[in-house]
Amino acid sequence: MAIQSPCVDVCRIDGQSGFCVGCLRTREEIREWKGMTDHRRHEIINDRARRAAKLPATAAPATQTSAPQTS
Fold it and tell me: In terms of domain of life, where is this protein from (predicted)?
C-alpha cells in the first residue's frame, strides 16, 4: 500500500527553513512525491519533528484533521 501524502491543504513555504508549514516537505519533495519510493516517503514523514523544530513559532505546522491527500 502506497504511503499517503502528508498534505493538509495549507500550502505555504517558510522562507527560512524551506519547508511547507502544513506538511513539512520541501518544494522538491512535494513535486517528487508521486514518484518516490515508500521508503523515501517514510523517511520524510518520520522526520516531521526535526523539521517542525526548524520552523519559527509563528509558522507552526497545521494539525492534521482529515485523511491525507494524494498529491
Answer: Bacteria
